[in-house]
Automatic annotation (TrEMBL):
Its EC number is 3.4.11.21. This is aspartyl aminopeptidase. GO terms for molecular function: metalloaminopeptidase activity; zinc ion binding. Belongs to the peptidase M18 family. Keywords: Aminopeptidase, Hydrolase, Metal-binding, Metalloprotease, Protease, Zinc. It comes from the Eukaryota. CDD domains: M18_DAP.
Amino acid sequence: MTSSSRKYALEFLSYVNASPTPFHAVESSKQLLKKAGFIEIKEREPWAQCVENGGRYFVTRNGSSIIAFGVGKKWKPGNGMALLGAHTDSPALRIKPVSKKFAENGSFLQVGVETYGGGLWHTWFDRDLSIAGRAMVRHSNGSIVSKLIKIDQPILRIPTLAIHLDRQETFTFNKETQLFPIAGLAAAELNKTAADNSSAEKSGSDGDFKPLALMTDRHHPMIIDRIAKAAGVNAEDVLDFEMILYDTQESVLGGINDELIFSQRLDNLTMSFCATVGLIESIGDEKALDEESGIRLISLFDHEEIGSQTAQGADSNFLPAIIRRLSSDAATAFEETLIKSMLWSCDMAHSVHPNYPAKYESSHRPEMNKGPVIKVNANARYATNSPGIVLTTEVAKMAGVPLQLFVVRNDSSCGSTIGPMLSAALGTRTVDMGNCQLSMHSIRETGGAHDVEHAVKLFKTYFNNFSQLEPKILVDSTT
Ligand SMILES: [Zn+2]
C-alpha cells in the first residue's frame, strides 16, 4: 500500500468511526469543510449578502443532509455546475417511540427497535451494540436544542439461540419478536426505577398536562440517563430523541497486506467521505476558483435507504432549491444551469464475491482496489448514459484512476440509487458510480483500502475540469 493511499484509508476510518448516524456523518463532513475554510450558511436566511463568487459554503437540512459548494470567480447564473451526490444513511435498528420492554419472565431489560432500510439483519446478532443519534434537550436557559449523542460502551446485544436448542440449517427469525436487543438484567432497573419514580412524580406534581407519557416511562430510565449524561443535561430535560443502534467494534484496515477495510456503513459513508475530501482538495488552493466559471457542489442526503422521499432526502426540493437560489438572476438561468450541469451519483457497488461468482454477469465483475465502478442499467435503475461515460472516462484519464463497469444479470434483482430520481427532477445528465465492496448492508462490510484514494482523486479531477470538459461533449446541438 502506498503511503498516500494508506493516508486516505486511515482518514476514512476516523470519519466512519466518528459517524454512527447520518447526523454524525453530516457533523464529520462539516468539521472537514470548516477546517478547509468553508462558511456555514442557512436556508432560513437570504443569501444575497453572504454568497459571493470565489466563496466556499455549506448548508445543512435537518442536521442529516448537507450540501457544500465552491462558487467560481467567473460564475454567472445560467452556467453549468459539477454536482456530486451521495447518501449519509445506512440500514440500522432504530429505538421505537415507546421502547421499554421487560422479558416475559421478567429477567431481562429489553429495548423495542424498528428496522430502518433493508439490512442484512442476521448480521446484527451477537454484536456488541450501542446507541447513537440526536436528542432534543432543554437547556437551563429554556431553549430546546438538538444534541448529537454517541454512547461508546456496548450496552445492547441481540443474542442468538444456542445451537443445542434449535438445530436450524438456515438461520431464520421473526423481525418483531426475535430481533430484540437485551439491555441488561431487570434487577438493576428495579432498584433504579424507585429513584426515578420520585423524580417523575416531582415533574408531574406541578400540575402540567402531559400529552405524552414521560420519556422515563416510555424508555428504560437507565437508557435516558445515559443519553442525558452524554448531552450534559438532567434526565427530565431529554424531551425526545431519534436513536439507532450501531456496532461498537471500530472500523479497521484488514487483509494480509492491509488492502481491505472491515467496517460498518461503507455503503455509503465511503462516497460521502470521498465526496467531501474530493471537493475540499479541488478548491483547497486559494486561487483554485479564479478561472472557474461554474460551481462545484456535493450533496450528501439522508434517507436513501428508505426511498429518499422526505424533506431532506434526494427526492425533496433540497438540491433544486439550492441550485435555484444560486442561479436566480435571469428568468431562465435556473433551467440553463440544470441543462449545462452534470451529476455524479455516487453510491457503493458490488465487488465480485469469490464464493458466489455465478451471481454476477460474467463480463461485469468489479474487483476491489481496481477503481470506481460505473453502473449501467437498461431499465434506468441507474441513470448512466453514454455522454456520462465519455466524460467520466476523460476525467479518469486525467486523474490516472482506473474505472470498471457493472451491469446486473437479467435474472437478478437490481438495487437503485438517488441517480434516477435526481436526474428526473433536474433534467441533468447523470452518471451512477461508486467503489465496490462485499456484503452490502451487513453490519460489517468489506471494501478496498486503495479505492478510497482512487475515488478522492477522481472526484477532485472532476471538479477541477468539469467546466472545461462540459462544452466539448455535445448532445441536443447541431454540429
Ligand atoms: Zn447506498
